[in-house]
Hints:
By secondary structure, the chain is α+β, with helices and mostly antiparallel strands.
Amino acid sequence: MDQTKTSKTIELSKPLETESGEITEVVLKKPTPPDMRGLQLSLIEMQDYDAMLVLIPRISLLTERDIINLEIEDFTAISVATLGFFVKMDS
């Protein structure tokens, strides 16, 4: 998983077939306050599926349908990477 302060790239364990083609990696951008509109941070911290289903399309090119079709390990990796934006890591 490639990391910067403003984005993270997650390689999928299995390519995801979509209407627009095959996806092998997902780039997440750092969420902004507007991305969090209507969401509770506590649900994001718990990696609540429904909250992630709203947030991930706001910070990536994945659609809700794409997320539903992800392998569970890929969904988990994306959720953990998303949560990492909310935690200050010491260098």
